[in-house]
């Protein structure tokens, strides 16, 4: 039986009325995305038509999911909200703080020893406030959600950008910062600008070496890392119905890499099969009663150009396998063309590692397709030229895969089976074969491949592909290997060719598990005591942020002018820093250390205007903070791209950064800045970025008149006394300006609850 079935029945009982009303008000047929959005309005039944990309709308999400790295800060904030229990079903999943090194058992044991303080904190907070808790080793948050909590037509938010994975089961699932999650946990509305809509029509059927992963790799190449910003991507067409549910999840998962608000598919037979296979027949039965409301209207899909802001069409029958990268997930290359491209760009051809898993590709189907290639290598006497690492998506998948002999196939090939956790995908990888900054190549089935992402080495060239393609490339040991056309020399000196991968959508004998790792909370947690040691290096109770006064915004110093790509990994690195995610002061020591200084092209090396000397970004900023001087960060396009990491906003705020001025923002990061009471601004004229000099001081001329739809004026004072006056834009509405004036959104919640 499904979790929270009464809540799901309530959603379904209201959906038809609300969708019918939305059709009446808008005067048109609706996409699936619109049906879900209009049926989850905070005020209930729709009473107006919203303008895409313009109107801010209050929503009522059905549930929340948090992973351990972000849950710490989210729950530390929730503890300040003055509530006895969470207002909507919420879960915490311990998957980020487990480092991949030796293998599942020793790695999990070590994680429980080194992070027990954090796990104990999360378990106790979950117990106290009615939150479901998934133990370390239970699985990767998004795969666990897909198997247990996702349901067609629902809306959820999660404190991880890949929450969007649940779109594979027909949800509108959106990654947010912890402060957004706290709003909903506290019983408040969740605000989002009504998204634009991108339709992707899929025709044909996948065949041969092409996998679901190749759909999103192709889309990423078309839309780039910012082409989906502010939009929901909705997949439809006969090709969409030919994809498995977990394949749909893979596509939606990596939609985060094109900046999309989320991605989704309409309810179909594949979703029903997955629901029934994961012991949720009750949801499937309820969904079937309102089936037409859980997908887009026929008129929409027949004439998509009339109803979507942009339409892309992909024929799955002719789609080629891709490997995307290095250093960015949108650099798309068909496999057969990669060798020539690699030689031209001096990318290392030798492949050292093939990594399969992560929240993107760790389903039973993924493992079977990759295992079919691994078994061929054994049968054809091919010795892998690269190391192998496997991360199953959940304990249910691991147990079932072990029962069915899949893991044994990988182990016979010399693979290391890591814990059911994120591992190398988020930098939790103790990679023993590489030290320093040696140039090398790896291939993986993950979603992100930014510089330093997997192993901390800026010269690791990471390429993203399907699990079966990763397996083939790793066996060959060469980036230029094309399994569709090339042969390999086996141990007998014979040339052999790999056959096409074969996989199973679902386990023929069903899923099985002894202990899925779930701990239900107490019915009454009022007596549970949450302990945080005062001398803890891992956890720190929060102090409310003090509002930034208008007088503080005169004489603002430049902290750093970031050059080029500046993701949340650059602003607040993961990897070894994950251990400090619950301690704001300690993790602030990594603030912007990965950002490239535009004036010297170095990282973590900026000028201190007080001394004239250069130092690390956090060190210089702490000196400004000690003197009561506010600072500004200047950046390029798509600033804050990447994960939902609210630390990338909280850390600068904690250290005294008042404003971030960029050419454009990634959606989640801009919202996070607003939530933490900072100014997130964009150049009215992008060329003004070039005016910023290393010793500049900034005066916010009209900050006292900060209001909705009104640009701000900034006076830039240069070292030689010359000045430039520029206009900057913002997207703050009246409610968000109140967050800023109160010091943070959380401060406003506490004030309203007082």
TrEMBL record:
A Pfam family that the UniProt record links to this protein: Aconitase
Single GO biological process annotation from the record: tricarboxylic acid cycle
InterPro entries, per the entry: Acnase/IPM_dHydase_lsu_aba_1/3, Acoase/IPM_deHydtase_lsu_aba, Aconitase/3IPM_dehydase_swvl, Aconitase/IPM_isomerase, Aconitase_4Fe-4S_BS, Aconitase_4Fe-4S_dom, Aconitase_dom2, Aconitase_mito-like
Keywords attached to this entry: Iron, Iron-sulfur, Lyase, Metal-binding, Transit peptide, Tricarboxylic acid cycle
Aconitase A/isopropylmalate dehydratase small subunit swivel domain boundaries: 558-686
Catalyzed reactions: citrate = D-threo-isocitrate
GO MF term (any one): metal ion binding
Entry keyword annotation includes Methyltransferase: no
Pathway the protein acts in: Carbohydrate metabolism; tricarboxylic acid cycle; isocitrate from oxaloacetate: step 2/2
PROSITE patterns per record: ACONITASE_1 (PS00450), ACONITASE_2 (PS01244)
Cofactor dependence: [4Fe-4S] cluster
Domain Aconitase/3-isopropylmalate dehydratase large subunit alpha/beta/alpha: 34-477
Enzyme Commission number: 4.2.1.3
UniProt key word Amino-acid biosynthesis: no
Family: Belongs to the aconitase/IPM isomerase family.
NCBIfam families in the record: aconitase_mito, PRK07229.1
Protein name: Aconitate hydratase A
């Amino acid at each position: 039986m499904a979790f929270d079935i009464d809540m799901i029945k309530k959603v379904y009982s209201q959906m038809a009325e609300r969708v019918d009303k939305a059709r009446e008000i808008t005067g048109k047929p609706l996409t699936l995305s619109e049906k879900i959005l209009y049926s989850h309005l905070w005020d209930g039944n729709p009473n107006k038509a919203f303008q895409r990309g313009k109107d801010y709308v209050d929503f009522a999400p059905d549930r929340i999911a948090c992973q351990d790295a972000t849950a710490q800060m989210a729950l530390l904030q929730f503890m300040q909200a003055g509530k006895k229990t969470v207002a909507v079903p919420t879960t915490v999943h311990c998957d980020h703080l487990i480092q991949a090194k030796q293998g599942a058992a020793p790695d999990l044991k070590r994680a429980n020893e080194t992070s027990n303080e954090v796990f104990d904190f999360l378990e106790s907070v979950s117990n106290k406030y009615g939150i479901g808790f998934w133990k370390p080793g239970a699985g990767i948050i998004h795969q666990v959600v897909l198997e247990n909590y996702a349901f067609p037509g629902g809306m959820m938010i999660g404190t991880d950008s890949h929450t969007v994975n649940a779109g594979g089961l027909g949800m509108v699932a959106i990654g947010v910062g912890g402060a957004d999650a706290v709003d909903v946990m506290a019983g408040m509305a969740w605000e989002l600008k009504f998204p634009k809509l991108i339709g992707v029509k899929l025709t044909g059927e996948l065949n041969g070496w092409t996998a679901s992963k190749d759909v999103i790799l192709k889309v990423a190449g078309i839309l780039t890392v910012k082409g989906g910003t502010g939009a929901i991507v909705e997949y439809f067409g006969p090709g969409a119905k030919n994809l498995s549910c977990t394949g749909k999840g893979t596509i939606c998962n990596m939609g985060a890499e094109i900046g999309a608000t989320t991605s989704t598919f309409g309810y179909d037979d594949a979703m029903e099969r997955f629901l029934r296979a994961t012991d949720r027949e009750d949801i499937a039965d309820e969904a079937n009663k309102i089936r037409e409301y859980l997908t887009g209207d026929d008129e929409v899909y027949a004439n998509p150009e009339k109803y979507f802001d942009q339409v892309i069409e992909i024929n799955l029958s002719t789609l080629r396998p891709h490997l995307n990268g290095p250093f960015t997930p949108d650099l798309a290359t068909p496999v057969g063309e990669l060798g020539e491209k690699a030689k031209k760009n001096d990318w290392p051809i030798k492949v050292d590692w093939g990594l399969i898993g992560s929240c993107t590709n760790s389903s039973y189907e993924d493992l079977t397709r990759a295992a079919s290639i691994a078994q061929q290598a054994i049968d054809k006497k091919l010795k892998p030229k690269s190391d192998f690492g496997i991360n199953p998506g959940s304990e249910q998948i691991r147990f079932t895969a072990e029962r069915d002999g899949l893991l044994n196939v990988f182990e016979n090939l010399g693979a290391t089976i890591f814990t059911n956790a994120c591992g190398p995908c988020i930098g939790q990888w103790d990679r023993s074969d590489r030290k320093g900054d040696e140039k090398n190549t790896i291939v993986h089935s993950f979603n992100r491949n930014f510089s330093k992402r997997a192993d901390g080495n800026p010269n690791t060239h990471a390429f993203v592909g399907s699990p079966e393609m990763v397996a083939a490339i790793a066996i060959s040991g060469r980036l230029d290997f094309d399994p569709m056309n090339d042969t390999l020399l086996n141990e007998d000196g014979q040339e052999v060719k790999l056959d096409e991968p074969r996989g199973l959508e679902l386990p023929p004998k069903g899923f099985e598990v002894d202990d899925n790792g779930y701990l239900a909370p107490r019915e009454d947690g009022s007596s549970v005591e949450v302990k945080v040691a005062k001398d803890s290096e891992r956890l720190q109770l929060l102090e409310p942020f003090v509002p930034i006064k208008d007088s503080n915004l005169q004489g603002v110093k430049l902290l750093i002018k970031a050059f080029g790509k500046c993701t949340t990994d650059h602003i607040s690195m993961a990897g070894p820093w994950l251990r400090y995610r619950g301690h704001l002061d300690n993790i602030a020591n990594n603030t912007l250390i990965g950002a490239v200084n535009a004036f010297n092209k170095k990282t973590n090396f900026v000028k201190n205007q007080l001394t004239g000397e250069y130092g690390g970004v956090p060190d210089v900023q702490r000196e400004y903070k000690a003197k009561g001087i506010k600072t500004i960060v200047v950046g390029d396009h798509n600033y804050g791209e990447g994960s939902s990491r609210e630390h990338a906003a909280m850390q600068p705020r904690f250290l005294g950064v008042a404003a971030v001025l960029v050419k454009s923002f990634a959606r989640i990061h801009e919202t996070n800045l607003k939530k933490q009471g900072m100014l997130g601004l964009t150049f009215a004229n992008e060329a003004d970025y070039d005016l910023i000099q290393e010793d500049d001081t900034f005066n916010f001329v009209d900050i006292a008149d900060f209001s909705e739809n009104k640009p701000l004026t900034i006076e830039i004072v240069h070292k030689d006394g010359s000045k430039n006056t520029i206009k900057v834009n913002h997207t703050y509405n009246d409610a968000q300006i109140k967050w800023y004036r109160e010091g943070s959104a959380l401060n406003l919640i506490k004030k309203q609850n007082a």
